[in-house]
Structure formats: structure tokens, C-alpha cells
Amino acid sequence: MKLFKKVREICIIGMGRFGTAIAKTLLEDRENNIRLVLIDEEEKHLSPFKDEVDMIYVADCAEQKTLEAMNLKDFDVVIVSASNNIEIVAALAEIGVKSIIARATSNRHAQVLKQIGVNLIVSPEEEAGKKTAMIVANPTLTLYSENMVELQDGFVSASITITNPDMIGKKISELGFRNKYNVSIMMIKRDHKSYIPEGDFEIEDKDLLTFIGKLENITEVFELCARNDKKGKK
Prior knowledge:
Layout: E1 8-13, H1 17-28, E2 34-40, H2 43-46, E3 55-58, H3 64-69, E4 77-80, H4 86-95, E5 100-103, H5 107-115, E6 120-122, H6 124-136, H7 139-144, E7 146-150, E8 155-161, H8 172-175, H9 177-181, E9 184-190, E10 193-195, E11 208-214, H10 215-225
Parallel strand pairs: 1-2, 1-4, 2-3, 4-5, 5-6
Antiparallel strand pairs: 7-8, 8-11, 9-10, 9-11
């Protein structure tokens, strides 16, 4: 018997590029059991989602009475993706919203948001800038990396498609990524299906491997995985 999974009510305020990306990602997973509500001051930003989400509102969310009328206090999470958001966050905190996620455009902005009640602060521009700098500073990552994410303490996760014929048909345990390079395989994607592999998992041509490890170690592993690739034969 399936256990009942509580519906999570999520609201996104501000449907620019950042808010749109969040909404699309949430909508891609039809099993996440959420009720999604979108708010923006301009109807044109909301119209692409009118048949996809539970409710859309054209409204100025800096007004406390407006937020109260939409019962946002009862939502599990309110995401404020608009960059000019201090008044909106203050109004949300004032009506008693318990979980607020907001976008910050600078360190000072982040400090102010934290002081007025934001639970989680995201800085997409800063994160994108760091990621781009890391990639362009390293020729191997520039050529081969897919979906690189900076983690903590110098660790990253990054993905690469296997092209080295010496790795095809080998088990993960035989390749010794953990012992030789101090990196771990988090996931393998093959023919649109993803796996969390164990040591006896065999690598096939064009598998997409996602690694986690220190940046310098990931780079070394990528050079191995990409050998005999048309862009960079060794």
C-alpha cells in the first residue's frame, strides 16, 4: 500500500528567467506532488504557464494585503526570484510566511535579506560566474565537461561522455577511480536511463559518467575518459 504523500504548496514570485527556470524544473517532475502558484506583475510572463500550474496571479507582491488575500502564509515555501525583492520579502515575513527563499544580487543584498527573514539565499549570477571561470581556466573542462556544479571545499561534480576505448567493457572496480584518482562515480546515464552504479557495473561506449571529487582530480580523470576523442587525441 502506498503511503499518502502530503502535497507541498509552493509559490514563485517573479517570472523572469530565474523564476521561469525554477517553474519549468518543478513541472518536469510530475511525481513531486506539489501545488504550484506563480505571481508576477506582468501577465505576459505568466501566460506560458496558465495551463500548467494550479494558479497564476497578476499582482504587486510588495503589498501586504495582496499577499494576505492569496493566503501565502499557508504555503510550504515561497520563492522570491525577482531581483528587486526587499519590500516583497519584508511583506512576506510580516504576514508570517515560514519558509522564504530569495535571490540576492550582492553580498550586501544577501545580508539584508537574511536580516528580514529569508531562510535560504541564492545568488545565481555569482554561482554562474564562478562556474564559468573554473571551466574557462581549465582546457580539459572547456572541451569535455557537462553539467559541472561547484560543491564545497574545492569539490565539484561534473559529467563526461566516455570515448576512451580502453575503458569500454571494464567494470568500475577494475578502473580504480577511487584508489588512483580519489574521485567517485555518482551516476551513469545510458540511453536516457540513469543508474547509481556499484563496482561490478560495466562501462559501455557513450555512457555519461558523473564524478565527484577535487577539481584537479576530476580534470585528470576527464583527460583519461576523453582519450581518442576527436577533439583531443593523446
